Amino acid sequence: MNDPIITINGLNKTYEGGFQALTRVDLTIQRGEIFALLGPNGAGKTTLISVVCGLVNPTAGHVTIDGFDNVSQYRQARERIGLVPQELTNEAFETVWNTVSFSRGLFGKPPNPAHIEKVLKSLALWDKRHNRLMTLSGGMKRRVLIAKALSHEPRILFLDEPTAGVDVELRREMWEVVRQLRDNGVTIILTTHYIEEAEEMADRIGVINHGEIVLVEEKAVLMSKLGSKQLTLNLQTPLTEVPAALQRFELSLAAEGHELIYTYDGRQEEDGRGMSELLSALEREGVAFKDLNTRQSSLEDIFVDLVKERA
């Protein structure tokens, strides 16, 4: 049974000067999921997070966090949220331990060294607890931001571009950290430019563009519905054009007529224009091939198509 932890209804945000950053955003985040919010620069990702976290006031609409209105019941709503911003911390001379402990105090939580220890160990920061932040690598500083966000035991964690500017190896380590957090019952919402990040981790994906939610879908369903597949046939005899009897299929010639490329999706499979139908038609037309291979579009292909479609 669905158990929403965040409900967003009719959210609008217009800044002074008339720029509309969000337009009638409706979105529900389920408890315990990893939800990835994808969108190009300026799409409204950070504005949406800022409104949900109570850092920016909406022009219209409302947000409920674990049953609490994030405006009229701000304190109860906000204490359920941990926010990891894009910017690295600037408390350069503080130690890791003090920085994370101080963050807990900001939410009015009593000291709990055991919890801080647990958080630091889970993020591989325990050995660095006495280090000043200025001595840490960029990746370690990023982990400190997550530790700060987890210091007050939130049920929801927002990660705004969590791996921007870090190398691939560290990015994968961070993904593992996020999965562990989800396994411990934390709901994760992340914005990302890295398509592979969403493809690797998310349970559901939302696409935002020009301040509007274009689509929300389970990752697997999204990829099967919108992910096109490509079949490349290496022909025994080159063709100069696609035979008339094959025009109903999405076919193109490549490699000077030596390759016949068929692009299709799951919906075409269902309405009889799929691969098996194509192969039968090729046989009837006497078009022989010596080899074939398939390729499925990635989430990046889908994302680019969606944004282009609604540009």
TrEMBL record:
Keywords: ATP-binding, Nucleotide-binding, Transport
InterPro entries associated with the record: AAA+_ATPase, ABC_transporter-like_ATP-bd, ABC_transporter-like_CS, ABC_transporter_ATP-binding, P-loop_NTPase
Domain ABC transporter: 6-235
Full protein name: ABC transporter ATP-binding protein
Source organism of this protein record: Halomonas casei
Pfam families referenced in this protein's UniProt entry, alphabetically: ABC_tran
PANTHER family named in the record: ABC TRANSPORTER ATP-BINDING PROTEIN
GO MF annotation: an example: ATP binding
